Amino acid sequence: MATYLRFKNGAWYARFQVPPDVREAFDGKRELWKHLGTKLKRDATLRALAESGDFQRRVVAARNGGLPGSDYGGALEWLKQWRGAKALLASSGDDSLLDAVRDDIEDAAEKRFLKGVPWQEIEHEMRERESRELDSNRRAVIEALGGPPAKRWFKVATGETAPLLPHVDDWHRAYSRDVQDKTASMGKSDVLAFLETHPHADDITRKAVAEWIEKRLEAGGAGTTVNRSLTPLRSFWKWLQDREVVSEEMEPFAKHDVSRRAKQKGKSGGDKYVPFEPKEVVSLWKAAKEKDDDSLADLILLGAYTGARIEELCSLGIAEARGVVLKITEAKTTAGVRDVPIHSALKPVVKRLIQASDDGFLLSGLKPNKYGDRSAGIGKRFGRLKRAMGFNSRQVFHSIRKTVTTQLERAGISENVTADIVGHEKPRITYGTYSGGTSLRQRREAVEKIKYPALKGQCSAALTKGARRATLPS
């Protein structure tokens, strides 16, 4: 994912924050850095996505009883013996091997989960369970003292549930044959993120998925974003069904009406935000300049003349801004990867930003948050600015994107040309499926239709002025 990228000492890295609860599995490290082995940002983006997936896999494994690359603390190896004993019982009626394997599994669990526990505490637990007429067999005692990790370990070792993490890499290889590399990497990240809270087959029910959707929407996710995440999850589940890891009768990801739920919460992602008027965009730019927040002022200008998303602009490298287009390589969708012609009014601004950059990014000096998102801090500054100016919750930075599309529509620009400029899917199947896309000339002529009369004259000198970069708190 683009937010994991770091440019340091002339090279690209992927950087991850290690959650406190799994740092022991990462040798106590708070951060993990991976050199991506390339100087090209486009290649680094894809490699960072892959590293993100591997990192999430390690986190999930560490949280579920096994260290990275292990067999869930030996549980999967015991599962093989358990299944062999069950097969013998089914074919011959002989349960002696099953009893022996059960004893061995309990021995292994005791060593793993009760190491260091005083024998007096173990005896006390047994007596307590007997007095309350609860199961006091060996497994029950180990599970009681070992907690949820011990319970899960026993379920894996005896085939009562299936850990899904070991299957992710094999599914991803198959999925990669059907979709583009970036889509496959994003899909793997979505699956691994879901498995952090639903790591086993019995965790995944229709109700659990519905609750997960609700939480995503409550956290501010748009319906379109949640639907995008569901696509690889459905693919992963179908892959598991085909290999008889999960039941064919269970369809926990099917027929969730995300759009209806999103509309109920105002998170549909399609009609929540309203555009600014062109003069309002100029007023925002002026206000940022008056506050000496030159980075925010430049961000507003870039958005006003490109219609690009805030995260796309904040992740733009200077290498993607040299020439006559801005090369958007880090986008939410495949359609979002595009070349946007640089508006004539924007060219001197882009030139100045390239010359001033000292970290490889067009908008230099932005501090990423703990997740590596360079747009988070400056996005908050934009929010504070627009609220201070009296704009409401339906007017956000994304509203500038709507300002651009509104101007293009009113100028009579074809919807397909606009889609190629702002990175939307083509509205009709003929162009979306069979067309090779619009020409650079078509897009350049369309971009020049974007006008901000209030900027003319009084602001032209400020556009090219070598402004100092503001370093404001996020």
Automatic annotation (TrEMBL):
Residue span(s) of domain Tyr recombinase: 271-447
Domain Core-binding (CB): 162-241
Record GO terms (molecular function): DNA binding
Domain of life the protein comes from: Bacteria
Pfam entry (one): Phage_int_SAM_1
GO biological process: DNA integration; DNA recombination
PROSITE patterns, A to Z: CB, TYR_RECOMBINASE
Keyword Nucleotide-binding among record annotations: no
Record key words, sorted: DNA integration, DNA recombination, DNA-binding
Family, similarity comment: Belongs to the 'phage' integrase family.
The protein, known as: Tyrosine-type recombinase/integrase
Organism: Vineibacter terrae
